[in-house]
Design brief:
Largest sheet: 5 strands, parallel
Order of helices and strands: EHEHEHEHEHHEEEHEHHEE
Strand order of the largest sheet: 2-1-3-4-5
Helix content: 40-55%
Number of strands: 11
CATH class of the largest domain: Alpha Beta
Bound molecules: calcium ion
Length: 225
């Protein structure tokens, strides 16, 4: 079955460029320029994935994303003009599956579309979650039957990230989660805990990259391994 991508973009040149690349990659396309036209089209065409620009005439991408999430789990990739904006969007918990910053290479967009589609298609069939067992009382995590020997902080990070596979969290969100008493810790602290956690995971299962870093943004748990 051919996947249909809905491109929501009000810059005609960019919309054309994206459409050409996605068509070449083998997808069917629908394009919309005005934010007000998105929801009716989503309901009618039920696309496999939506590339959603943030700044649009009619209605902005944030509101559109929230409204779509009230009735559909269709994968959404948000497209923004500023990398700083991604942090703010993450904080709003809109439910988007990925974020892309302009300017982008169309090739990169096609790669992200593929990855998100693969992830959403595999979500049900994934086996790794059942191979990762978390004992919340003892802070004990086992992967493929072997104890990961995590510290409490590492366990909490793994437990939090794995509760929402595919969802990207920035460092501040992780810090709030791990240090709710607002202790002063630097971004680096989270990075080094994640680094140790990944090392322990790969020590047990070298092929498994359960925790992936999202460049310039943060981390996510990938259940499709
Ligand atoms: Ca725009």
């Amino acid at each position: 079955m051919i996947d249909t991508i809905l491109v929501v973009e009000d810059e005609p040149k960019l919309a054309r460029l994206l459409s050409n690349y996605l068509r070449q990659a083998g997808y069917d396309l629908h394009c919309v320029e005005n934010g007000l036209d998105v929801l009716p089209l989503v309901r009618e065409k039920m696309p496999s994935l939506i590339l959603l620009d943030l700044m649009l005439p009619g209605k902005n991408g944030m509101d559109i994303c929230k409204e779509i999430r009230s009735f559909s789990t269709v994968p959404i990739i948000m497209v923004t003009a500023r990398i700083e904006e991604i942090d703010r969007l993450l904080g709003l918990e809109l439910g988007a599956d990925d974020y892309i910053c302009k300017p982008f290479s169309p090739r990169e967009v096609v790669a992200r579309v593929r990855a998100v589609l693969r992830r959403s298609g595999n979500q049900q069939q994934s086996g790794v979650v059942s191979l990762l067992l978390l004992d919340e009382e003892r802070f004990q995590a086992t992967l493929h039957g072997r104890d990961l020997e995590l510290t409490v902080v590492e366990f909490q990070l793994l437990s939090f990230l794995s509760a929402n596979p595919g969802r990207i969290y920035n460092r501040n969100q992780l810090m709030d989660r791990i240090y709710p008493d607002q202790r002063v810790v630097s971004d680096r602290t989270i990075d080094s805990h994640i680094k140790n956690l990944r090392k322990k995971i790969s020590g047990v299962s070298p092929e498994t990259e359960l925790i992936q870093s999202v460049y310039g943004v943060g981390y996510k748990f990938d259940a499709n391994q």
